[in-house]
Amino acid sequence: MTTLATTVSERIALPTPAHGGGEGFVPPSASDILAMLRRRSVLIVSLFILFSALVVGGFLAWWYLFPGYRGECLIECVSNIPEKELTLEQERLRQDEHERFVLTQAQFLMSPTILGEALKINAVKETDWYKSVIRRKLEPLLELDEDLIAAPVRGTNFLRVSIECRNLKDPAVIVNEVVNQWYHTVKRRTAEEYASEALDAGKKEEEDLEREMAGKRERLKAIAQRLPAGARQNPGENITAQQVRQFGEQVAQLQLELSQLEQYRTIYNDPEGVAVTAEDRAIVEQDPQVAELGRALYLLQQQRASDEPVFGPGHAVRREIDSRIAAAEAKLSQLRLERLRERRADIREAANTAYDNTRHALFLAQENLAKAEAELQDQDRLLFDYTELEKQILQDVEYKLHLSNYVKSLARIKSQRTAINVNVAQPAIDPLERSSPSLFFLPIGLFFALALSTGIGLAVELMDKSVRTSQDIIRHLDVAMLGAIPDTDDEEVAIDHVETAVRDHPSSMVAEAFRGIRANLQFTAPAERQRSIVVTSPRADDGKTTVACNLAMSVAQGGRRVLLVDANFRRPAMQRIFDGVKAQGLSNILIGDGDLASYAVKTNIPLLEVLGCGPTPPNPAELLGSPQCRAFLQDAVSRYDQVIIDTPPLLLASDGVVLATAVDGVILVVRAKRDSRGVARRACTLLADASAHVFGAVLNAAQITRGGYFREQLRAYYDYRPDDAPSGPTKPLATKKT
Asked: Which architecture characterizes domain 69-190+420-426 according to CATH?
């Protein structure tokens, strides 16, 4: 048996999610949104019909019960153009001044004084609008201020005054009376009074602006004196900027030197960490005492060489000369060692001195750099202030020119005693058609009804956290999708025992789905890496036993020897599904009471054998995690091509997690509409924390819904079969003992 996890390249190229998995909201793709809309199409259509009926009903009620008629008046405001040729003193009013005047007249027309005078007129009091306001006990002045509109017509000299009422005759009466009151009041106001006040304010503003500009020029001059030469022309090339660059380069160079000296000093501070170099030996040999002693040793060696042919090895002369040579060599070695130590001490002292000097120089350079940078920052702030003051002075100069022209225009207006002529170009008349409601509101309302219906449908779909489709597993669990089993209630073939659907109803859609799972499983990993498989689920009644039984039958029908093991000690099911399953089984084998050959039973499906769970042990998880269980798995894998094990639910017992670590892989069964995404994710997290390899997930009891996968596939599957294809159950499943 092998328990090695499959590599990524060995897994089947099934749909996998684009996100990183894990908890949290996963944004749906365009295809997901379309599928949601199809599933909730009935709700969306129903809501759209309801909202559309409300929109149409509200529009009709508005149309017949609350119609609106708008009447409007146009007032022309034109400047006084002199008859003779224009000069600098007699130029036309500037366009912005004209627009401001028109806006002023619009605000004056809407003033409580004008509106209050208009409401005193009997013609206004006789209107249905006024009677309705009084009947509702509202303030007429406030209602008129809210309903009446006075605004300039963009791009023209006209001022539009309008109001909307439910009676066809009311708008013209109200608008004309308000405009008349305004017109007579405007005529009573002289241009001289208007221009005198504005002229005095303009001259005062011009004087204040001149004083402000003088102060800004003084500040600009003071800042210019504080800036170094060339700072305004080339900010990056002044003396301070050059100093910052120089000090920065100096600091970088000193830091590099200090790092090298630190390494050098560390090496020579450790006497054992420095190897003797040829240079060290040469310097030591140049020492006078070493050289003198070396020459003496050389002479002794020469004398020994000359005496060697004369005296034998044991002669006294030979022994004396050898002892003198040994003493000289020892003395020379000791002297060399002392000189080498003295050289290292000198080098160490020189390195420490150089390090201290460089560190001090670095400190000074960093201090100079900090001062230069601070000075450069001050210069940058001054330069920024200088630039801003220059911009403000230029803007003030431009505004002063504009203000001067404005004062001149007011002086001309005062001298001529008129600025703008106002005339009622078009009095208000009775409307020819209703203004509200507009037919354009109807398609807009229908569009919003459709948008609201669609939004509610999507919201209901998104709030449903259950796993319903294969896309939910792919998007939210981050595992491969092995297949989906349709709900037996949607099958055209009556299936009494879904646990044996592959055997009893081989031509059904359910059986075909299990064969598809078998085919997908074969491509998830090489055959030797899927010899032992655990089939489990998050919770009880998810259909894991059904998937395990039918998958075992499908694999056996494919020509492989299969052992189906019931490891669910808490709720065993194999004795109920298969006849002849022994009361002794897995628990007996794990405690040493029998072996696999004694308790496995054969079925009438060739190559399929079943092993029951046996008596319930007091500690199932400990028993499944024991070395005896691993030995059992090795024995089973050696006897069969594939071992499929049914375990308890992951979230109810730890048996499945314990056993999942001892097999080649796990198949996770999720029941549609019953298991939530959070429950399925917690099951995947348990398997991931135990380092179990998951081959993929199976969606069980997938129901037919609008926009679902099986709606068209079921119909197409049974339409594609031959007319004489068998659809009923075959002979019942039987077993026999091994």
From this structure: 2-Layer Sandwich (3.30)
